[in-house]
Amino acid sequence: MEVGGSTAAGFEPVREELERNFAQRGELGAAVCVYHRGSPVVDLWAGWVDAGRTRPWQRDTIVHAYSTVKPMVATCALILVERGALQLDAPVASWWPEFASAGKGAISVRQLLAHQAGLVALRDDVPPDEIFDWDAMVTRLAAEAPWWEPGTQHGEHAYFYGHLVGELVRRADGRPIRQFFAEELAAPWALDYQIGVRPADRERVAPLAGPPEQDPEETAGAAGSIYRRGVTNPPGMLDREVVNSAAWMDADIPAVNGYGTAEAVARFYQGFLAGGELDGRRLISEALCREAVSVHRSGPDVMLGRDVEWGLGFQVEDGTWGHGGRGGSSGYAAPELQLAFGYVPNFMADHDRGNALADTAEACARNLA
Questions:
Q1: How far apart are CA 131 and CA 122, in angstroms?
Q2: How many CB atoms lie within 10 A of CB 85?
Q3: Distance between CA atoms of 230 and 182, rounded to whole angstroms?
Q4: Residues with catalytic function
Q5: Which one of 12, 178, 196, 311 is least enclosed by Cβ atoms within 10 Å?
Q6: Which is nearest to 311 in space by CA: 90, 173, 156?
Q7: Which has the closest alpha carbon to 338: 266, 273, 259?
Q8: Which of 58, 56, 23 lies closest to 43 in space, CA to CA?
Q9: 3-state SS of 342-366?
Q10: Collapsing DSSP states into helix, strand and coil, what is residue 16?
Q11: Angle between the N-to-C axes of helices 352-367 and 12-24, in degrees from 0 to 180, rounded to the nearest 10
Q12: Spatial separation of the C-alpha atoms in residues 192 and 204, rounded to whole Å
């Protein structure tokens, strides 16, 4: 397997681990990027854009990375908090009055960002095409009653986090979340990442692939579970044919339809490691960075069925903070090592490939300490 890109001295084992992913773990195409002590030390890509293995992966290939985008969406709201346009402990309904219905009037911006609002699923069946209609989706969410008393439990808002935060951003700022993200986060920090895909960039997309025999319903959780309800209503999010479609790329589904490079993911986390500033462009203060990645609630996650510690859009675990995405993509920061990591594959599988790369990168950083 030919691997493109470069590694700094001491990080060569990451290239070897990427090669091992292809040789032993079924990788099709992927990229990995690592920053260490503020500098890029790994920028690698390899494999194929397409399942037919006719188009080699390029440095600027972008991938649908599912929930890896969630902390970036949260950061859009944090930028407005920094500017005083939003306040963390004020009710969401202060900017979005319709949101106060069905017992949600007291839900704060902080609770919304920390996955405590209880809007993880919709009780009424939603037609498939409605996921492409922003106004229809946020109207449903505003009318929905929480699945638990807000603030008393937490659960990843897997499908709707982007609609909830995105509508709050739109009400406070006036711009749709896709536009705000592009202008206020991606452009200042030079992140090759976007919500949906601009038509001019669609040739760069590596479509998601996976085992041909895999039934999307098999990955949807137990029948009757809140998780299953939360990720299959409306249908489409787990269907590769849908998420590879032009309609999905056209849509704003900000919890799950972010597209970008591994370099963009690592750069984003480097900006947070540096206290909210990247390449001389400060977006949020050091204090707000610390607040965002501090633990706001811990314990059993209603959706994920395991203990999770949540910051403001970031999962916090063993001193690191970040977020993974369905199919194996991931991004996180390890502040003790001053390491920022991004990985994006196009073959839908578990997180073993990304974990192997991350563990190797961390080992390299420790060896250089």
A1: 12
A2: 13
A3: 27
A4: 67
A5: 12
A6: 156
A7: 273
A8: 58
A9: EEEECECCCCHHHHHHHHHHHHHHH
A10: helix
A11: 160
A12: 11
Overall average pLDDT of the 130-142 stretch: 98
Residue 222 · residue 232 · CB < 8 Å? no
Q: Helices 161-173 and 70-82: crossing angle, nearest 10°?
A: 20
Q: Which two tokens stand for residue 152?
A: 């008393």
* pLDDT of 222 higher than 80: no
CB 66 within 8 A of CB 326: yes
Q: Could you count the other beta carbons within 10 Å of the beta carbon of residue 280?
A: 6
Going by pLDDT thresholds of 50, 70 and 90, the confidence category of residue 223 is: confident
Residue 212 pLDDT > 80, yes or no? Answer: no
Note the pLDDT of residue 211: 75
Beta bridge partners of 5: 44
Domains of the chain are 63-360 (3.40.710.10)
User: Model pTM?
Assistant: 0.97
CA neighbor of 34 nearest in space, from 278, 350, 364, 351: 364
Do 164 and 141 meet the contact criterion of CB atoms below 8 Å apart? yes
> CA 245, CA 110: separation in Å to the nearest integer?
34
270: left (phi over 0), alpha (psi -120 to 50) or beta: alpha
Residue 302 carries which side chain, given as an amino acid letter? V
Buried b (16+ CB within 10 A) or exposed e, 218-233: eebbeeeebbebbbbb
* Contacts of 298 by beta carbon, 8 Å cutoff, 6+ apart: 307, 308, 309, 310
pLDDT in tens, 182-197: 999 999 999 999 999 9
